[in-house]
Specification:
By secondary structure, this protein is of the alpha/beta class. 36% of the residues lie in helices and 18% in strands. It folds into 2 domains: 2-92 and 133-233, Metallo-beta-lactamase, Chain A (4-Layer Sandwich); 95-128 and 256-312, no CATH class. Helix 4 (95-111) packs antiparallel against helix 5 and helix 8 crosses helix 9 (279-295). Bound molecules: zinc ion. Residues 14, 17, 66, 68-69, 180, 227-228 line the site of zinc ion. InterPro entries: Metallo-B-lactamas (IPR001279), RibonucZ/Hydroxyglut_hydro (IPR036866), Sec-metab_biosynth-thioest (IPR050662).
Protein backbone atom coordinates (compact mmCIF):
# COMPACT_ATOMS: atom_id res chain seq x y z
CA UNK A 1 0.00 0.00 0.00
CA UNK A 2 1.42 3.36 -1.02
CA UNK A 3 1.12 5.65 2.00
CA UNK A 4 2.19 9.29 2.15
CA UNK A 5 2.12 10.92 5.58
CA UNK A 6 1.13 14.56 5.93
CA UNK A 7 1.77 16.31 9.26
CA UNK A 8 -0.37 19.28 10.29
CA UNK A 9 -0.26 21.57 13.34
CA UNK A 10 -3.22 21.72 15.74
CA UNK A 11 -4.10 24.27 18.43
CA UNK A 12 -4.56 21.39 20.91
CA UNK A 13 -2.22 20.10 23.63
CA UNK A 14 -1.64 16.94 21.63
CA UNK A 15 0.46 18.86 19.08
CA UNK A 16 0.66 17.83 15.42
CA UNK A 17 -1.82 15.50 13.75
CA UNK A 18 -1.19 13.12 10.84
CA UNK A 19 -3.13 12.50 7.65
CA UNK A 20 -2.31 9.72 5.18
CA UNK A 21 -2.68 9.84 1.42
CA UNK A 22 -3.26 6.31 0.15
CA UNK A 23 -3.20 5.31 -3.51
CA UNK A 24 -5.10 2.21 -4.53
CA UNK A 25 -7.77 1.92 -7.20
CA UNK A 26 -8.92 5.19 -5.68
CA UNK A 27 -6.92 8.14 -4.38
CA UNK A 28 -7.93 8.62 -0.75
CA UNK A 29 -6.87 10.56 2.31
CA UNK A 30 -7.32 9.23 5.83
CA UNK A 31 -8.07 12.13 8.23
CA UNK A 32 -7.81 15.79 7.34
CA UNK A 33 -6.74 17.88 10.35
CA UNK A 34 -8.51 20.64 12.31
CA UNK A 35 -10.25 23.47 10.52
CA UNK A 36 -7.52 26.06 11.01
CA UNK A 37 -5.67 28.10 8.40
CA UNK A 38 -2.34 26.57 9.51
CA UNK A 39 -3.59 23.01 9.09
CA UNK A 40 -5.06 23.85 5.68
CA UNK A 41 -1.71 25.16 4.47
CA UNK A 42 0.13 22.07 5.73
CA UNK A 43 -2.48 19.84 4.09
CA UNK A 44 -2.25 21.71 0.79
CA UNK A 45 1.56 21.56 0.87
CA UNK A 46 1.57 17.81 1.59
CA UNK A 47 -0.94 16.98 -1.14
CA UNK A 48 0.94 19.15 -3.66
CA UNK A 49 4.27 17.55 -2.79
CA UNK A 50 2.74 14.14 -3.49
CA UNK A 51 1.74 15.46 -6.92
CA UNK A 52 -1.96 16.13 -6.40
CA UNK A 53 -4.48 18.86 -5.69
CA UNK A 54 -7.52 18.89 -3.39
CA UNK A 55 -9.69 18.30 -6.48
CA UNK A 56 -7.91 15.01 -7.24
CA UNK A 57 -8.79 13.34 -3.95
CA UNK A 58 -11.63 10.86 -4.50
CA UNK A 59 -12.29 9.78 -0.94
CA UNK A 60 -11.86 11.26 2.51
CA UNK A 61 -11.84 8.45 5.08
CA UNK A 62 -12.21 9.39 8.76
CA UNK A 63 -10.79 7.38 11.67
CA UNK A 64 -13.06 9.28 14.08
CA UNK A 65 -15.02 12.50 14.52
CA UNK A 66 -12.70 14.55 16.74
CA UNK A 67 -11.95 17.99 15.27
CA UNK A 68 -8.18 17.45 14.95
CA UNK A 69 -8.98 14.60 12.52
CA UNK A 70 -12.20 15.61 10.78
CA UNK A 71 -12.01 19.40 10.31
CA UNK A 72 -11.04 19.85 6.69
CA UNK A 73 -13.60 17.47 5.16
CA UNK A 74 -14.86 20.78 3.74
CA UNK A 75 -11.76 21.18 1.52
CA UNK A 76 -12.38 18.31 -0.92
CA UNK A 77 -15.08 19.24 -3.46
CA UNK A 78 -14.92 15.99 -5.46
CA UNK A 79 -14.51 13.48 -2.65
CA UNK A 80 -16.82 10.95 -1.12
CA UNK A 81 -16.70 11.30 2.67
CA UNK A 82 -16.50 7.94 4.48
CA UNK A 83 -16.74 7.17 8.17
CA UNK A 84 -18.87 5.86 11.01
CA UNK A 85 -22.45 7.11 10.76
CA UNK A 86 -22.09 8.69 14.25
CA UNK A 87 -19.77 11.31 12.65
CA UNK A 88 -22.70 12.74 10.71
CA UNK A 89 -24.17 14.22 13.88
CA UNK A 90 -21.03 16.32 14.35
CA UNK A 91 -21.02 17.40 10.70
CA UNK A 92 -24.70 18.35 10.56
CA UNK A 93 -24.87 19.87 14.06
CA UNK A 94 -28.68 19.93 14.11
CA UNK A 95 -30.33 21.84 16.94
CA UNK A 96 -31.88 18.55 18.08
CA UNK A 97 -28.51 16.81 18.33
CA UNK A 98 -26.78 19.74 20.05
CA UNK A 99 -29.57 19.88 22.64
CA UNK A 100 -29.42 16.13 23.18
CA UNK A 101 -25.66 16.26 23.63
CA UNK A 102 -25.93 19.06 26.16
CA UNK A 103 -28.60 17.15 28.10
CA UNK A 104 -26.44 14.03 28.01
CA UNK A 105 -23.41 15.79 29.50
CA UNK A 106 -25.45 17.72 32.03
CA UNK A 107 -27.05 14.52 33.29
CA UNK A 108 -23.69 12.82 33.82
CA UNK A 109 -21.96 15.84 35.33
CA UNK A 110 -24.77 16.00 37.91
CA UNK A 111 -24.41 12.26 38.61
CA UNK A 112 -20.68 12.84 39.09
CA UNK A 113 -21.51 15.54 41.68
CA UNK A 114 -19.65 18.26 39.79
CA UNK A 115 -20.45 21.74 41.26
CA UNK A 116 -22.91 23.79 39.18
CA UNK A 117 -20.39 26.49 38.20
CA UNK A 118 -18.03 23.90 36.72
CA UNK A 119 -20.88 22.19 34.87
CA UNK A 120 -21.68 25.42 33.04
CA UNK A 121 -18.00 25.89 32.20
CA UNK A 122 -17.63 22.39 30.76
CA UNK A 123 -20.83 22.76 28.73
CA UNK A 124 -19.56 26.08 27.33
CA UNK A 125 -16.32 24.46 26.17
CA UNK A 126 -18.25 21.57 24.57
CA UNK A 127 -20.44 24.03 22.69
CA UNK A 128 -17.43 25.41 20.81
CA UNK A 129 -17.38 23.46 17.53
CA UNK A 130 -15.57 25.98 15.37
CA UNK A 131 -12.79 23.61 14.24
CA UNK A 132 -15.16 20.82 13.18
CA UNK A 133 -15.99 20.27 9.53
CA UNK A 134 -19.54 20.53 8.26
CA UNK A 135 -19.72 18.31 5.18
CA UNK A 136 -22.03 15.33 5.84
CA UNK A 137 -20.77 11.84 5.10
CA UNK A 138 -21.66 10.44 1.68
CA UNK A 139 -20.97 6.81 2.63
CA UNK A 140 -21.18 5.00 5.97
CA UNK A 141 -18.64 2.27 6.64
CA UNK A 142 -18.83 -0.33 9.38
CA UNK A 143 -16.87 -3.04 11.16
CA UNK A 144 -15.73 -5.80 8.78
CA UNK A 145 -16.15 -3.74 5.58
CA UNK A 146 -13.45 -3.48 2.94
CA UNK A 147 -12.59 0.18 2.23
CA UNK A 148 -13.98 1.03 -1.24
CA UNK A 149 -11.19 1.53 -3.79
CA UNK A 150 -8.62 -0.23 -1.61
CA UNK A 151 -8.78 -4.02 -1.99
CA UNK A 152 -7.62 -5.81 1.16
CA UNK A 153 -7.94 -2.76 3.42
CA UNK A 154 -10.34 -3.81 6.17
CA UNK A 155 -12.38 -1.64 8.53
CA UNK A 156 -12.46 -2.52 12.24
CA UNK A 157 -14.59 -0.74 14.82
CA UNK A 158 -12.47 0.16 17.85
CA UNK A 159 -14.48 2.40 20.20
CA UNK A 160 -13.09 3.91 23.41
CA UNK A 161 -11.10 7.00 22.49
CA UNK A 162 -14.09 7.99 20.36
CA UNK A 163 -17.44 6.31 19.81
CA UNK A 164 -16.89 6.57 16.03
CA UNK A 165 -13.37 5.12 16.03
CA UNK A 166 -12.17 2.85 13.20
CA UNK A 167 -8.80 1.40 12.31
CA UNK A 168 -7.87 0.18 8.82
CA UNK A 169 -5.81 -3.01 8.46
CA UNK A 170 -4.32 -4.15 5.18
CA UNK A 171 -4.61 -7.92 4.85
CA UNK A 172 -1.55 -8.33 2.60
CA UNK A 173 0.97 -5.75 3.85
CA UNK A 174 -0.25 -5.97 7.50
CA UNK A 175 -0.02 -2.20 7.75
CA UNK A 176 -2.57 -0.44 9.94
CA UNK A 177 -3.78 3.14 9.84
CA UNK A 178 -4.82 3.38 13.45
CA UNK A 179 -6.10 6.90 14.18
CA UNK A 180 -5.71 7.42 17.92
CA UNK A 181 -6.06 3.79 19.04
CA UNK A 182 -2.43 3.73 20.13
CA UNK A 183 0.08 6.58 20.12
CA UNK A 184 3.84 6.35 20.44
CA UNK A 185 4.48 8.97 23.11
CA UNK A 186 1.22 9.52 24.97
CA UNK A 187 -1.77 7.58 26.25
CA UNK A 188 -4.93 7.95 24.21
CA UNK A 189 -7.75 9.33 26.39
CA UNK A 190 -11.06 7.46 26.50
CA UNK A 191 -13.40 10.44 26.73
CA UNK A 192 -16.99 10.32 27.90
CA UNK A 193 -19.18 10.72 24.83
CA UNK A 194 -22.84 10.21 23.99
CA UNK A 195 -23.51 6.68 22.73
CA UNK A 196 -23.94 5.96 19.00
CA UNK A 197 -27.68 5.28 19.48
CA UNK A 198 -28.10 8.74 21.10
CA UNK A 199 -29.71 7.23 24.17
CA UNK A 200 -28.79 8.32 27.70
CA UNK A 201 -26.78 5.18 28.51
CA UNK A 202 -23.21 6.34 28.98
CA UNK A 203 -20.68 4.18 27.10
CA UNK A 204 -17.99 2.77 29.41
CA UNK A 205 -15.20 4.37 27.38
CA UNK A 206 -12.18 2.92 29.18
CA UNK A 207 -13.67 -0.58 29.25
CA UNK A 208 -14.34 -0.28 25.51
CA UNK A 209 -10.88 1.15 24.90
CA UNK A 210 -9.12 -1.68 26.72
CA UNK A 211 -11.14 -4.19 24.66
CA UNK A 212 -10.11 -2.36 21.48
CA UNK A 213 -6.45 -2.53 22.54
CA UNK A 214 -6.80 -6.27 23.21
CA UNK A 215 -8.32 -6.65 19.74
CA UNK A 216 -5.38 -4.74 18.24
CA UNK A 217 -2.96 -7.30 19.68
CA UNK A 218 -4.82 -10.11 17.87
CA UNK A 219 -3.98 -8.57 14.47
CA UNK A 220 -0.77 -9.29 12.63
CA UNK A 221 0.80 -5.84 12.22
CA UNK A 222 3.94 -4.83 10.35
CA UNK A 223 3.57 -1.11 11.04
CA UNK A 224 0.96 1.03 12.77
CA UNK A 225 0.50 4.53 11.36
CA UNK A 226 -0.75 6.76 14.17
CA UNK A 227 -2.84 9.91 14.39
CA UNK A 228 -0.13 11.78 16.29
CA UNK A 229 3.62 11.18 16.17
CA UNK A 230 5.65 8.34 14.72
CA UNK A 231 4.74 4.93 13.39
CA UNK A 232 4.76 2.01 15.83
CA UNK A 233 6.20 -1.45 15.18
CA UNK A 234 6.26 -2.92 18.70
CA UNK A 235 2.47 -2.82 19.09
CA UNK A 236 2.08 -5.62 21.65
CA UNK A 237 4.80 -4.22 23.91
CA UNK A 238 3.28 -0.74 23.88
CA UNK A 239 -0.26 -2.07 24.49
CA UNK A 240 1.08 -3.94 27.55
CA UNK A 241 2.67 -0.73 28.83
CA UNK A 242 -0.56 1.25 28.40
CA UNK A 243 -2.67 -1.45 30.09
CA UNK A 244 -0.17 -1.72 32.95
CA UNK A 245 -0.34 2.04 33.54
CA UNK A 246 -4.16 1.88 33.53
CA UNK A 247 -4.11 -0.94 36.01
CA UNK A 248 -1.85 1.06 38.38
CA UNK A 249 -4.21 4.03 38.18
CA UNK A 250 -7.22 1.76 38.70
CA UNK A 251 -5.66 0.37 41.90
CA UNK A 252 -4.91 3.91 43.03
CA UNK A 253 -8.61 4.77 42.63
CA UNK A 254 -9.49 1.68 44.68
CA UNK A 255 -7.17 2.96 47.44
CA UNK A 256 -8.82 6.40 47.34
CA UNK A 257 -12.18 4.69 47.94
CA UNK A 258 -11.34 3.86 51.56
CA UNK A 259 -14.67 5.54 52.19
CA UNK A 260 -17.60 6.12 49.77
CA UNK A 261 -17.04 9.01 47.33
CA UNK A 262 -18.49 10.73 44.26
CA UNK A 263 -16.67 10.84 40.91
CA UNK A 264 -15.85 14.51 41.50
CA UNK A 265 -14.32 13.75 44.90
CA UNK A 266 -12.20 10.93 43.52
CA UNK A 267 -11.09 13.15 40.62
CA UNK A 268 -9.89 15.87 43.03
CA UNK A 269 -7.78 13.33 44.93
CA UNK A 270 -6.46 11.57 41.84
CA UNK A 271 -5.51 14.75 39.95
CA UNK A 272 -4.96 17.42 42.64
CA UNK A 273 -2.75 19.61 40.44
CA UNK A 274 -4.74 19.63 37.19
CA UNK A 275 -8.35 18.69 37.92
CA UNK A 276 -9.50 22.31 37.92
CA UNK A 277 -7.85 23.36 34.67
CA UNK A 278 -8.67 20.07 32.89
CA UNK A 279 -11.88 19.04 34.56
CA UNK A 280 -13.63 17.45 31.55
CA UNK A 281 -10.64 15.26 30.78
CA UNK A 282 -9.83 14.25 34.37
CA UNK A 283 -13.48 13.41 35.13
CA UNK A 284 -13.51 11.17 32.04
CA UNK A 285 -10.37 9.39 33.19
CA UNK A 286 -11.59 8.89 36.77
CA UNK A 287 -14.96 7.66 35.51
CA UNK A 288 -13.08 5.17 33.33
CA UNK A 289 -11.12 3.68 36.25
CA UNK A 290 -14.32 3.47 38.31
CA UNK A 291 -16.10 1.68 35.44
CA UNK A 292 -13.26 -0.87 35.28
CA UNK A 293 -13.48 -1.45 39.06
CA UNK A 294 -17.27 -1.90 38.82
CA UNK A 295 -16.79 -4.39 35.98
CA UNK A 296 -14.21 -6.27 38.07
CA UNK A 297 -16.79 -6.31 40.91
CA UNK A 298 -14.38 -4.61 43.31
CA UNK A 299 -16.64 -1.59 43.85
CA UNK A 300 -20.28 -0.65 43.33
CA UNK A 301 -22.29 2.57 43.27
CA UNK A 302 -25.69 3.71 44.45
CA UNK A 303 -27.66 6.80 43.53
CA UNK A 304 -28.05 9.12 46.54
CA UNK A 305 -29.72 12.49 46.04
CA UNK A 306 -29.01 12.34 42.28
CA UNK A 307 -25.30 11.59 42.76
CA UNK A 308 -23.52 8.29 42.14
CA UNK A 309 -21.70 7.27 45.32
CA UNK A 310 -18.97 4.69 44.76
CA UNK A 311 -17.82 2.34 47.50
CA UNK A 312 -15.78 -0.83 47.91
CA UNK A 313 -17.59 -4.16 47.93
ZN1 LIG B 1 -6.37 12.88 17.77
Amino acid sequence: MEIVKIVMPTPYDVGDVNAFLIKGDALSIVDVGPKTKEAYEALEFGIKRAGYRFNDIEQVILTHHHPDHAGWVDAFPNAEILGHEYIDHWMKKTEEFLNYREEFYKMYLIKQAVPEGYIQKILRIRRDMELYGSTPLTKYIKDGDEVPGHPGLMVYYTPGHAQSHFIFHHQRTKEVIGGDILLEKIASNPLIEPPVDLSFDRPKSLVQYQESLQFLTTLEISKLYTGHGNEIVNVKELVDMRLEKDSQRTNQVYEILSEPKTVYEVTKELYPAVYESQLGLTLSKTQGYLDVLVKEERIRFELVGGHEIYSRI
